[in-house]
Every structure is written in C-alpha cells, then in structure tokens.
Design goal:
Elements: H1 7-10, E1 27-28, H2 40-43, H3 48-52, H4 63-73, E2 80-83, H5 86-97, E3 102-105, H6 111-118, E4 123-126, E5 145-149, H7 161-170, E6 176-179, E7 200-205, E8 218-222, H8 224-235, H9 244-254, H10 257-280, E9 283-285, E10 292-297, H11 302-311, E11 314-315, E12 327-331, H12 335-351
Parallel strand pairs: 1-11, 3-4, 3-5, 5-6, 6-7
Antiparallel strand pairs: 2-8, 7-8, 9-10, 10-12
The structure holds 4'-deoxy-4'-aminopyridoxal-5'-phosphate (PMP).
Amino acid sequence: MSRFLKQRYQAMEAYTPGEQPRDMEYIKLNTNEAPFPPAPSVLEAVGKEDIALLRLYSDPTCSALTEKLARLYGVGKENIFLSNGSDDILNFAFMAFGEKGARFPDITYGFYKVFAQLHGVEAEQIPLEEDFSLDYKRYCAGGRLTVIANPNAPTGMSIPVWQIEEILRSDPHRVVVIDEAYVDFGGESCYPLIEKYDNLLVVRTFSKSRCMAGGRLGYAMGSAAIIADLEKLKYATNPYNINRLTQALGEATVDAEDYYRAMCGEIIRVREWTAKALEALGFRVLPSQTNFLFVSHSGIGGKALYLALKQRGILVRHFESQRIRDFNRVTIGDKRQMERFVETVKDILQEAGYENK
Ligand code: PMP
C-alpha cells in the first residue's frame, strides 16, 4: 500500500476471487463457470469485421441487446439495465441505494460486504438459520437496502417468490435487490414483480447459465425510475463499459434460448446424480437449485478435502469463515468430470481411513 491511498480504503478488504492457477491442468469446479461452450450460433456471431470495428466506441445504450431482453421477458426497454457483469450492477446498487445502510445474510455472496465497505454503507448481516435456510421475516421492514441472492451462494438454497413479495410489501421505502445469478438452475424468478413493486431490482448474469463468464455481461430489471438511477451512475463512471464484441455475443445468446435451456437441464441432471453419489459416501449435501453443491463430511475437514482434491488436480472452493469451514462448494461440471470427482473423493476418504458403513 502506498502512502497516497485514501484513508477510507486502507482498511478495506477487497474481494478474493476463486483461484485460477496455471501450474497444471485442473478440473475446475471452483468458480461456478459452465462446463459447456456457448451455443454454436454464438461462436459464429463475431467475425473479423466486428473486430475491425473495435476502432469505434461501443453503443453505450446497448440498444439491440436491451430490445431483445425486453422482448424475451415481456417488459419495457426502460426496465432493463446492462453492465459489465452483475458485479458491476451490484456495485452501482450499493452506491445508489445504500444511504441508510444495507442488510444481507451472514453467509452469502462475499462481494456484498466489500461493496458496502467500498461505499461506506453500514452493513447489517443477518445470520441464516441453523440449517442454512433464510427466514424471510427477518428481512421485512427495516428501512435499509436489502440484498438477497436467490438462490443463495454458497449454500445453493432458495426462498419462494411469495416470501420475496412479503419482503417487498413490508417496506416500500427501501430498495430490495434480488440477485438471481443462479436462478436458471431450478429457482423461481421474481422478475414479474417489477410491474407491481417499484422498489425491486432483479439482477441477472450471462456468466453462469449463458456460458459467458469471460464476456462480462450482466443485466438488471426494475422500475423505470430505478433503472434511470443506475444509468446515471454508469454514465458517471464508464458509459462504454460493455465492449461491442460482448454486446454482439449477448444478442446471439438471447436468440439461442433453447440451447441454454437444454444445457441447464443437463447440469441439473448431473447435479442430482452427484448429490446422490456424495450422499452415498456419507456427505451432508445441502439442497441446491444452482449449478453447485455445498457439501461437508464428518470424516474429513473442509480444508483437508479441498487440499487433497487440489493435489489430485481438482479445484473446489473452500471458505475459511467460521460457520462454513467444514464445507466445500463444488461447481457442477459435465458428467465425466463429476464421475472423476466422485471417484477421487472416494479414494481420499479411503486414505483418510473413513469407511462408509
Ligand atoms: N452474484 C452471485 C451470487 C455470484 O455468485 C456471482 C459470481 N461470482 C455474481 C453475482 C457475479 O457474477 P458476474 O459478475 O460474473 O455477472
């Protein structure tokens, strides 16, 4: 740290992204990326002519992509906001709506805490229940920006839309952000509620169910007024924050809905297979509506399992925080990767002297 950094950033702890080691080829089950490439039509959506056009700025309004998304969801263009990944949108949401503080679960996406610190937003972290479920009543009223990942990460568990509606209804004077990064893997989206509640912001991403984590594309749906607020902040920081190649790929992605639906279906099938296989090995597996499983085992610590897997070329995500340090978050890969994963886990348990009875 230099002596020039503003004091308010000196103690700030930045987000730690999942590791991306280059020392050998790993089976990467640690950052919830898709195991499949984008749709064939997306692979062909960008050519030399588009690369040549990089000499020009991209469309800051993302008009073509906005129109496609508006048509897909049956909402107005003024209800859609696009930005450089959903992290970017969450950042704007904390910047814009956090005046009276923010409220989110103790175990959730780690970036919420970072954004709160970054923008000097007082954070109230509400503990999840003993079984990692979320009691919606604890988010009713309260007057603070409320941020809920639904389904939640890293637990993978979700709450039904009627509970989100109760939260919205309980206090119309604060914004409720529902982060639906993983909703396409079996969750229920609450975006139809934007018509009824002008304090709702639904945040989505192309990174997981649209196989485009490296493209950096996220979008949000909300009332025209909330979307205008986010636009204002985008135009106050970086209006061209989605490059023209990503915009073109995003448009082709929206046109390939069937491919992505089928892909999500396959991931759900492999997830259920993996969950059963792990339960048979004595694991506790939290119910998941996402493209990952959150798992623990009484015979081996979370960190020990993470390290043993890494040594054998498989990366999963381990978190050090107190309540979840027995667990690992395992992204669902393709069937072959998950078979390899389960076999490797079996070997590790055997070596650790654990016998499944
Ligand atoms: N929300 C949640 C709950 C996530 O897990 C992630 C992925 N790390 C994001 C948002 C951010 O996704 P992206 O910026 O790639 O759209």
